[in-house]
Design a protein that fits this description.
Blueprint (H helix, E strand, L loop, with lengths): L2 E5 L1 H14 L5 E5 L5 E3 L2 E3 L1 H10 L17 H8 L10 H15 L4 H11 L5 E4 L6 E6 L2 E4 H7 L6 E7 L10 H7 L2 E4 L4 H12 L5 E5 L2 E2 L2 E2 L4 H7 L6 H7 L6 E5 L6 H5 L4 E5 L6 H17 L1
Parallel strand pairs: 1-2, 1-9, 2-5, 9-10, 10-13, 13-14
Antiparallel strand pairs: 3-4, 6-7, 6-8, 11-12
Length: 304
Amino acid sequence: MKITALAGGVGGAKLAHGLAQILQPEDLTVIVNTGDDFEHLGLYICPDLDTVCYTLAGLANPETGWGRTNETWNTIANVEKLGGASWFRLGDQDIATHLERTHRLKEGQSLSQITMDFCKAWGIEHTVLPMSDSQVRTMVDTEEGELAFQEYFVHRRCEPRVKGFRFDGAEAAQPAPGVKEALEAADAIVICPSNPWVSVDPILRIIGKIEKTVVAVSPIIGGKTVKGPAAKMYAELGMQPSTVAVARHYRNILTGFVLDNTDLAMESDVNNLNVKTLVTDTLMNHLTDRTRLAKDVLHFIGSL
């Protein structure tokens, strides 16, 4: 079975890792959100892309889910001593990634080519693609005005109330090389448990209409997100944060939907959207959880 996964952030990276434990490299492509990319201290930083790659490579910090394991912080500490911006924490090993990426982008290389080379260097055999080589920027409309995503997410710690989102550059951006081919070759598309508003929507905007079996895994369990501001965003946009709200978000493209055992009582509400369901344990605390959930998702797809 060939799977193309759409992912962004920690939850998406975990399920992508689980799928990679089961599927052969030629059978899994992960398309990653780059709407939260930004430039900081002169470096081109791709938070979601790096989180997915570090996780697939076994290099991710197990405590934070982002950044590198066994990280040190000497560079950013000295930037701070000099009065520089330190609100976005960059570890010493992580900075090497950003330095080399920035250098190569300035030489004219594409983000997809650089990502492919980084994956090879880190021993990642499955294909990881940025959603686009063009710059797309997620902008958050808040009650304090429009903020760039990292300004909202990290610097302001998601405090401003959200009113909406805009993906600057999405209209002109094209899918990165390999994205269309991966979608066409896939037997099914898996939307990983990532933030629907700011991790998955940018990808969907770029790749356009999907004419495949699509299965999404809810990032909301019991009305809360394991990590990140998705539940807060739903509430501030006037919607009750729930797994049903996530299913409604994707209802126009969904074939199947995976929700947690905690939300069993909501299964019929999702079925009423004309979407088939799988109820299972979706929390991924350990590698065994990621692999088990990936197996559940693949078996579910096989039953559709």
